Amino acid sequence: MARRFSVKIPVSRRRPLKSLAKKDWRPILIQIKAKVVLIGKKLRGTILGKSANILELVKNNPKKAKIAGLTILSVVIILFVAYIFFDRNTVKVVIGEPEIITFSTDEPEEAIPSGNYTWIGREIDPKYINLPTISRSGYIQHVGVDQNNQIAVPSNVFIAGWFVNTVRPGQKGLSIIDGHVDGPTREGIFHRLEELQIDDTFEIILGNETVLNYRVLEVKTVPVSEAEKHLFEQKLDVVSQLNLITCGGNYNRESRTYEGRVIVMAQLMGN
Asked: Which Pfam families match (predicted)?
């Protein structure tokens, strides 16, 4: 694996931490919600197919039906509480000066961020992205310009990267967040990004837990040679725009790169 380099802010220039490291529960809730929705879709056909039997049970044995319903609800609540309070792999969050990634590698890390990962950033920095319609979510690093004079890519396939030379999400202007479509062996955070549709919505969660809701305006795949032009394009009638980018198109095995880029343009809702 290629060695990863980064630039850290000198200690003398760091702001004092406003809080100690704390566990971040919101991503767990997002993941639970996604799993519940997935399970619900899988069970939908089964439940509909047996709806007649269920109605018969309720009609003939209302007491048993009530007990069965309460039992199922109790099990769900117990599992939920256990998942929240006994999970030992929760990511820690620290409010402070972040590390900025300035080195891109073709072999990013493929370990899911867990208890050994700490997100560091300001309260107004983007911390987490949730794309429910394609079942993708993850933390957001700070990325700058890399060794090739391009936007650096995140050091982990499960983490997105906010380009710090653009405005923060939620502010007036254009924000850019990039992410891997895949790694050497695993799918990346922006895998299936091209499947987003116009009017789909997604969330950006800031360091202070503020939730920003975005609506997709356009999804397109362009050649690498045209990617920069489209990536930095901001629509005239959009006050706060966020563009997402990842690799797409055909994969060239000789150069070990994708021949295109998938770009999603989105607008902050309420603006």
From this structure: Sortase
